[in-house]
Amino acid sequence: MSQYAEIKKRGERTIAAGLLLVILLLVMVLPALPALASGTWTRTGDMTYGHSKHQAVKLNDGRVLIENEIYDPSTGTWSLTGNWNYGHLKYSETLLADGRVLIAGSDGSIFYSLDSRAAEIYDPATNIWTPTGFMTMGRSGHLAVLLNDGRVLVAGNQWGDTSAEIYDPASETWTPTGSMNDSHGHGTISLLPDGRALVVGGDTFDYVQGEITTSTAEIYDPATGTWQYTGSLSGPRRYHTATTLADGRILVAAGRDQNNAWLDSAEIYDPATGTWSLTGPMNDSRYAHTATLLQNGQVLVTGMPNVPNVNLFSSELFDPATGTWFYTTDSPEERWDHTATLLDNGDVLIAGGTQTSIPAIGFDKVTAYLYTPDNNTPPPPPPPTPTPPPAATTAHISDLDGTSFWVNSRRWKATITITVLDDLGSPVANAT
Description:
The chain contains one helix and 33 strands. The chain is mainly beta. It folds into three domains: 1-30; 39-373, Kelch-type beta propeller (Neuraminidase); 390-432, no CATH class. Strands 1-28-27-26-25 form a five-stranded mixed beta sheet, with no helix packed on it. It has a four-stranded antiparallel beta sheet with strand order 2-31-30-29, with no helix packed on it. A four-stranded antiparallel beta sheet has the order 3-4-5-6, with no helix packed on it.
């Protein structure tokens, strides 16, 4: 072999060894990716029109109402309902106890400074929308929830109003009730197991400071018509989600803070104690996303991971048993301000929203997909917590002939009788 060839061969070995060393270092230094749980996405029928910032309600027969369109899971197709009597934007939509649907509120001008008081009801039996009185206050970006007695609580709006009112389907009338302590526009409302309603986060509007994001939470008691604070979040958030878990606790996840920073934090409210506690953070920060309780007790989160994230299609699952998040199969399309509805067969219908990583130039989507969780595969275990090595221990050892001596060691082999003494010379029971 020539001297040149020998030098070249040695150089190749050196480069290869260097590359291997770099790869090993990267493996050792880079954090492991979150575990992945399988799930499948299947495209279903397209909607007639594009929808975003809309609501979705599962009807008693299993179909899904989105504005003036209905999805039939048995055929995978959409059909139109009758037309609305009023325009609605940033409205609330609530399934009533008798199976009809109440829609209420809307922005009243292009500048979003006035809100509509209009409300109407959809009847699945006739496929028609019918006006049903007017709210006492114009509202948009407000909150609404069905109470256990069949009435509907509607509260706040996006412009700092704290008022609340009750809709009675039996009389088709609106009646004022106690006002919230804070405004919670773009917040969330959840019905608790005991029939009270929990309002969380959101923002208020100040004509000098603009939108002010809040960290407060309060509870409405239908028996007294009053509101009371119930602890506070770990920090201000709006455009978050609130999901009632199988055990009655409320999972609040992601959103934006006062500085419009995207959040990946999550916390849980326990109605039994009235307290909040942080749970594991999400893998991606998000807002204008969805969070859906699955039949297996886990929570599916889809949509709008932070723009700097290279994967705009990511979806993840929360496991309440471990308090951890893990990725599931990527969504086929990016979207935000969409809806996610749990169907009777356990699938989740993802519909509409805006497609773009730059929301200001997005467009309303007509596409819809079904997410089918893999209920046969348990969630991946959380990463193990490193255990620090035990410190060196000084122990007094007595052997069988009664002779004593001191030794510093981390552990002892059970070949002799060992007696561990404390600083005062007394034996320590159950020492290891």
